[in-house]
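[step 3/7] fold_predict: job queued, chain A
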Amino acid sequence: MNFLQSEQTTVIISHLSCHPPQHNRSHHKEGYLRRRVVHASMTLPAVLVLSMMASVSMSKENNSWKWQRSLRHTIEVDAVNDGNIRKDEQLLSTAAVYNGDWSVHVVGPLLMVMAVLQFLRVWRKWGSTTTSSEGAKETEAECVHTQHGIEQGNSSHRRPVVKYRSDAARNYFHPSDGVVVEDSNYGDETWGSMEHHTAIQVFAQQSTPAPWLSRIGKQWMSLLDDDVPLSSISIPGSHDAGSRYGGMYVATQSWTLIDQLRSGIRYLDIRCRREAGRCRLSIYHGFVYQRIDMDDVLQTVQCFLQQHPTEIVLMRVKEECKPKEEKNTKSFSTIWNWYMQQSCSNGTTYGAMMARNMGDDGWRTATLGSVRGKVIVFRDDLKIDPSYGIKYRDNSKMDVQDYYALQGLHGMSKKKALIKAYMEKANHNKNKKNNNNMLIINHCSATQIPIFTPSYVAKRTNKTAYYNILTSHWHKTVGILVMDFPGDHLIFRILLSNFLLSPEKEKEVEEATFAQQL
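[step 4/7] structure written:
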């Protein structure tokens, strides 16, 4: 019994390039649209009545004194002749129509037309969805992928049926019983608007990841073979992982470090600062203290790896800014060595969980199995013991795209183009025979102060990354994607890209299976 089945949980993967069985998906979507039609049918007359009542009430308030004054004058002058009274009242009513509040004759019909158009739009969408889902038949073990990973009901956009690399991976991400258990935060509402970006969480909108993602993300590396090179793994990462405070120009994450690790993130960007009179490293973004220290970071990572020894954590460590009093502050190397000697909860030291002696030869032959349960430090211009991890931006070991300061009117377009190019570069590098285990680190994070905040850029670059995964190749390595505010579905799609067969590989597997049967 696999991990997910032991907890009797499943995952929604309809938004993530892999749909559940068609009858389940169409059932939920049809039910959602039926409710929309019923709501629109009930709302339509209510909107019309309320709009007319409001308009008439407004008109009466604005013109009540005219009516009262005119009628009183008419009654005083022509009190004897009832016919004249009725005639004058009719004339006054006609005058009120042309001289009264225009909202009576404009706002009411306008709202009526808008309500009718909304009703017809929902009704037409329901009809087209019901028609497109009648002939769709999918087995429980297969998922139909489309151009953007979203079912659009158009056969011209359909891509070939793909399969998982192993039954274990398939059961982990898509249980064999085919039952779809929807989380309360991602219910039927998302099924009815699958063509809209709002249904796909590429940007973290909650303070914690979705429960279904946490159940998957905390040990997804256990499905990978030990002999897999690190350069062949698609890894989600967080830029300025500890930055959650300081306002819209400073904060880059919504989740705590433990939530990030549980969601599947395996690359942490840690920015430290030395402080005078303390043998401590505090986590900063710029000049803003993020209310945690290196003690908290190391303890969080150590506890996570102790509970999930099949995982690894890549940690970029950078000194964010110089201390105010350099003379009274210990060197970074001294503080780092002090941390490595501190005892942790499992009775060992923090230095014991660090991958050591990964020189040129060691890095070329490094596989996932050789570093499971370890932290690989990417030293960013740090004067510490070089036996810890590898040097950040070492051209022989990694290729980094970090265009973080957007410039000019085309800065955003340039950033998106770089993200796409490096995603393709990661997949091409994986297919090279002698790639020296070259890591491709692709930053989706950027800003352009004071125009673009990190969150503004992330909403657009995260979407670019999402729609360029699993498009040209099903098993497409995208490298290490470092993101601000990564959303649930974006992280899940990155994880999923490690476990799907490409059409070519699928053909090889089928031929090998057929040969064994002979």
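[step 5/7] annotate
Confidence is low (pLDDT under 50) at residues 1-29, 91-104, 128-162, 176-198.
The chain is about 40% helix and 10% strand.
exit 0
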